[in-house]
Amino acid sequence: MPGTTEIAPGRFRQDLGRAYEDFGLGDTYEHRPGRTITEADNVWFTLLTMNQHPLHFDRVYAADTEFKRPLVNSCLTLSIVTGMSVADVSAKAIANLGWKKVELTAPVFVGDTVYADSKVLAKRLSKSRPGQGVVTVRTRGLKPDGTVFLVFERSVLVPTRAQPRV
């Protein structure tokens, strides 16, 4: 679990993340702190990724849509929510194995504060990589009122305690 490890008498190193044994089936980790998404976040990410859809940065265009204002780029919300989960889920990961079942369930707007949680769905020791295991979580992005705006499953390859990473 996140904390510190004494590496020499009186010397400590921050120890983020979980080893394979620290994940419990059905456990849910609430990821904090939350993150308020700014207009700069949305515009910069949208332009950086070359997404030219005007719904993300053109207020006049967005005013004529059902949303009446620009939407936050969904790839940005996926990135932020994934990032929020790193300390609990993948800070010790050897590899991120992928996302699946990505669902965008509600819009996110500039000024929204987002939170996230992850529930452990499955875990198994690797057959081909001794000292490592695969953990699968379902991560949700939530607004303060409980609205779920994003859900996805993610699998990561993590070390066991017998195979620590430096």
Give me the secondary-structure topology:
Layout: E1 3-8, E2 11-15, E3 28-36, H1 39-48, H2 59-63, H3 74-90, E4 95-104, E5 113-125, E6 132-142, E7 148-159
Brief overview, please?
This protein is α+β, with helices and mostly antiparallel strands. The protein has helices spanning 39-48, 59-63, 74-90, and strands spanning 3-8, 11-15, 28-36, 95-104, 113-125, 132-142, 148-159. It has a single domain (18-159), classed as Hotdog Thioesterase (Thiol Ester Dehydrase, Chain A, Roll).
Structural account:
The chain is an alpha+beta fold and 166 residues long. The chain has a single domain (18-159), classed as Thiol Ester Dehydrase, Chain A. Helices cover 19% and strands 40% of the residues. It is built from three helices and seven strands. Strands 3-5-6-7-4 form a five-stranded antiparallel beta sheet, covered by helices on one side. Strand 5 (113-125) and strand 6 form a beta hairpin. The protein is elongated, with a radius of gyration of 18 Å. The two termini are 15 Å apart.
- Total domain modules: 1
Structural class given helices, strands, pairing?
alpha+beta
- Named at the architecture level, the CATH assignment is Roll
The end-to-end span amounts to 15 Å
Order of helices and strands: EEEHHHEEEE
CATH class: Alpha Beta
Rounded to an integer in angstroms, the radius of gyration calculated over CA atoms is 18 Å
CATH topology: Thiol Ester Dehydrase, Chain A
Short key terms for the protein model shown above:
alpha+beta, five-stranded antiparallel sheet, Thiol Ester Dehydrase, Chain A
